[in-house]
Hints:
Bound molecules: adenosine-5'-diphosphate, magnesium ion, zinc ion
Distance between the termini: 72 Å
Number of helices: 13
Largest sheet: 8 strands, mixed
Helix content: 25-40%
Shape: elongated
Strand order of the largest sheet: 5-6-9-1-10-11-12-13
Number of strands: 15
Amino acid sequence: MYYQPVIGLEVHVELKTKSKMFCTCSAIYFGQKPNTQTCPVCLGLPGALPVPNKQAIEWCMLIGMSLHCEIPFLAKFDRKNYFYPDLAKGYQISQYDEPFCQSGYMVLSSGKRIGIRRAHMEEDTGKLLHETVDGKKVSLIDFNRSGVPLVEIVTEPHFTNAVEVKEYLQKLQQIVRYLAVANADMEKGEMRLEPNISLRKMGETELPGYKVEVKNINSFSFVEKAITFEIARQAKLLDTDTLPVQETRGWDEDQKLTVSQRNKEEAADYRYFPEPDIPPFVWEKTYIEQVRKQLPELPEAKQKRFNATYSLPGYNAEILTRERTVADYFEEAVKIGKIHAIEAKKIANWMINKKIDIETVLPATLIKEIKSVEVVEELPEDTLKKIINNVIDSHGKVVTDYRNGKENALMFLVGQVMKEVKGKAKAETVREALINLLK
Length: 439
Ligand code: ADP
Ligand code: MG
Ligand code: ZN
């Protein structure tokens, strides 16, 4: 039996705002002493009131806009209720049926369109640390992360394999970095991935009656492995007419397999209801357009423009636009290079082939370096050949000496040619050409 995988993704991205989502505590928690960046709001103390972070909401909108989402004129926060020790309030402030962004898409390099269901705003939880203190196993809670702004981006189940998933994730990471709204460093947990996987028989078009969610993966390659593993596991079950259980699983990198964590709860289990402490938002059109104006040129557009403007060879435009800082560096160097008649193509080649470290080499320094090497602007081959032949013709005796085995004679001839070309040829090239012509 052949099956087609059906895959949808939920991705959490931590925003790099200065302060948290609903209080003024610092949102930069990495490496900080536990529980030093907390207040009554993010500790969930009774009576503390949340105040939404405007910057975070605008950044959420920018992410949505970059994914071609609509920005509805009405939006609100909701409470998602569940119990877990890292969730101080007993609920997470999230968005349920009226998110900031919805109905977008991303186009993969194959031309396939992946639907984006929504991009909404929520808050991160605290962090549980399982440690041994005085010989006893204990769980500790650090609330520094509690209330850090998170954007969740949910796709339609449009992926059919891990390769498509990986491309989507890489592009998404690139976009949020271009927007400069998140570092999306996976190792720090700033971008967390949750693939939902099910299988249907080839040719079927309806969604399977179950799905398996693999939670909280923090690497692109683990996502690939988890998807590949799940496809094989579920296919085996379906082969024996067993419907896989709808559940949440986790990726175990040591054993290279997914393990069941819990039966998946339904939305109804969360008892979502409108957050009573934050009134709904009604946006004015002019405000949304004002946010849209903050959109920078995104990777795809930049790549197209680089191709068109600088006529770069091959994949060079793609390589130079992978990171915004590299693209900016290139354009800065092109500007300086223009003054010295150095082509953009040459600059691109240098940056890529010589792996120029943009952190330590200034664009102006790079141009100086290119200039110092490129001054050997070489004569066309046939012009050089003519000059060499003239030198040979007018130094008959020296040529005879060379032919009789006098090595010094060759050096003399090279010197004569170098005088004639006025620096527009390399001595090594001239030497080789002479040897060839005197054969
Ligand atoms: P839940 O309410 O359980 O979170 P959603 O319907 O909101 O489920 O979908 C969550 C994610 O699962 C989305 O990315 C969606 O595309 C994906 N998804 C939905 N149905 C399936 C399916 N049958 N197989 C794989 N992924 C699915
Ligand atoms: Mg979900
Ligand atoms: Zn706080």
